[in-house]
Design goal:
Keywords: Cell membrane, Membrane, Transmembrane, Transmembrane helix, Transport. By secondary structure, the chain is mainly alpha-helical. It has ten helices and no strands. The protein has one domain (3-235). The chain has helices spanning 3-23, 27-38, 45-61, 68-91, 94-113, 122-139, 143-149, 155-179, 185-208, 214-235.
Length: 238
């Protein structure tokens, strides 16, 4: 990777880590397109390793706000959702699957923007976790369902729950990649050089979060969810 390419990737990782540390998701959606342009072989391994670092850090920093019960129910839904996502990825045409998922996200955003705020109870958490599992496995964008079901939470609680949820998922994904040869020495080396950029994004988020009250946080999460759905749609026609 050349010097200018590294600076570009590091800047993208800093911005993406700041987003992840502020609203609990978005690092892959923001950084992956940039890294793909520079070196596609670094995806998904490098992104997942960096996401693991960021989610671990935020989970530790905001641990006093963590709802283990709620996160546990969401993870219980994610496991079968991930299996279904893998099955759908094999059985359905990729374009159709991506468009269906984007439509579901946009529908959720519309009703949420209209005032619907689901209560994060067991059934809602199980359902959101399952949908997140399907989306994350099939398209690598799994944040929007959890952001919508946890939109009532204030900043620290939203970040801690989202981070704990995705930390478990990231570790599982890394284990799978390691066993299948998807992570090698080059990937680990690049990850190590980009860790400072991820930490810089987390530090930057501490300043950004001061301006994100509950309503601003909610609308930021909704906007990023829309961006994720639009990204899925655009990817199918580019």
């Amino acid at each position: 990777m050349s010097g200018p390419d590294f600076v570009l990737v590091a800047a993208a990782i800093t911005a993406a880590s700041c987003l992840q540390a502020s609203i609990g998701f978005g690092i892959g959606m923001l950084a992956a397109p940039v890294i793909a342009l520079v070196d596609p072989t670094l995806i998904p391994g490098t992104i997942i390793m960096l996401a693991t670092v960021v989610t671990l850090l935020i989970t530790v920093l905001d641990r006093t706000h963590l709802d283990l019960g709620g996160t546990g129910w969401a993870l219980a839904g994610r496991l079968p959702g991930s299996a279904l996502g893998a099955l759908l990825a094999v059985r359905l045409p990729s374009r159709l699957l991506a468009l269906l998922i984007a439509a579901v996200v946009l529908a959720g955003v519309v009703v949420t923007a209209a005032g619907w705020r689901p209560r994060p109870r067991r059934l809602a958490l199980l359902s959101a976790g399952a949908v997140s599992g399907v989306m994350g496995t099939a398209t690598s964008i799994g944040g929007p369902p959890m952001a919508l079901v946890w939109q009532r939470y204030p900043g620290p609680r939203l970040r801690s729950n989202m981070s704990a949820f995705f930390l478990v998922g990231s570790v599982a994904s890394l284990a799978a990649l390691w066993l299948t040869g998807g992570v090698d020495g080059s990937t680990v080396g690049t990850f190590a050089t980009l860790v400072p950029a991820a930490f810089a994004g987390c530090v930057l988020s501490r300043f950004v979060n001061r301006r994100l009250n509950r309503e601003r946080l909610r609308w930021t999460a909704i906007a990023v969810s829309v961006a994720g759905a639009v990204t899925l749609i655009v990817q199918q026609f580019v």
